[in-house]
Amino acid sequence: MVLENLRRRRRVKSSKETDSPDTMLEENPTLEDDNPDEEEYEETSDTCQLLNGGELEIEVPDVKESLWATSVQMFIPFILAGFGMVAASLLLDKVQHWPVYQEVSEVYILVPALLGLKGNLEMTLASRLSTHANIGHFDNPKMKLNLIVGNLSLILCQATVVGFLASIAAVLLAWMPNGGINIEHVLLLCASSVVTALGASFILGLVMIGVILCSKSFNINPDNVATPIAASLGDLTTLACLSSLASFYLKTLEKNIWLCVVSIVIALLLIPIWAWMASREKYSQQVLCTGWTPVVSAMIISSVGGLILDYTVAKYKGVAVFQLVINGVGGNLVAVQASRISTELHMKARLGHLPSNMTICLKPSAAFCDTKETSHASTAQMLLLMVIPGHLIFSYTISYLQAGHTSFTFIFLLVYLTAAMIQVVLLLYIAQVMILGMWKVNIDPDNSAIPYLTALGDLLGTLLLSMAFEFLFLIGDHDSDVGD
User: Is-above-0.90 flag for pTM?
Assistant: First the structure.
């Protein structure tokens, strides 16, 4: 409701400031016609141009969501997403004993990279579409359809390419310490990766579109709910697809190795089709041309985290069940913050120019405590308050289900929760600085910020969790469970 009032006030203000119909249409292109033709739509599909009408800064009424409403909208999807991560963690705890993970350990390197696709692609999709919904682009049926088709085709194209590159990165990272390459393993990794990326991204993309449309219908800010819900199904769906497909291809390697080759070829041949469909929508075309650096860079960062996981799981089996939880919680919380900051920038300023009340160089304390320096300090505080209760709920759920290889002692929880808090504090501060910095140098954070942030969350989470288990082992908390 707040967002609807905001758009209504902007339209009324615009009509009062000028009697020129051309000016009104320039500032509010969605008012021109309920069914604009393709040429009119293409001229106004750039988000930043549409929002700002050529001005450096826009006067926006100071309308804020209530603290209670924001908290509820954040916490409920966060808990649902957490249980999705718990389910994925339990699945990883089981599948790590499957033959494919024992015989082809490089699959571990694929896990963070492919699960990170929900941050690289699905969460970025959610952030982009949330911005479009909040500024009124979904009010026009034709524009809404074009945006949905273009963005869905875009993530399918990106998913296939990133899945293929992730398999190559896994092979290279596994080759460096061993000095040898097994061709059959290369084919298995490549086929499993591209098919998993394509299938999981299609399913999650449809879910994201449905969530944003439902949020708009119920006057809920999609920035608060879309990214956590993407994660609630993302980890479980992707991990299930990867494990099942890898096991299937492993069984067919001896007699039907051609299945791997055919799967890879078909997936790669579909890339030009997805690219052509994405290029038909102007905003998706822009991302298609310029949006590869963040997703590929994020994939490389996540693959390094996967290499750490591969070595750590070999020593501490208990890491597996917590790795997805700590990575997912950090990624979900920072994605919410990133989406909100990006939306505010789109609503208040032109790309390349920061609003007068925002600055890039913030002290860490100001990012969390000083509401005069940033309007997102209270949101950061709320997100931090969710970390410990969330992890306790998820950890005791894992304990109740008698999963994992780790005893839930007081010292274990203290060390684990400390690692989780350090991860989220670092991510929220990095998000504040990174997003404003990207905006200042003409990079749209809706397309670039979340991939970097979730990849950093994966890397930091895996690294801190490994350090936590190593610390527990060194201080003597290495019972039969932790050292199993």
Answer: no
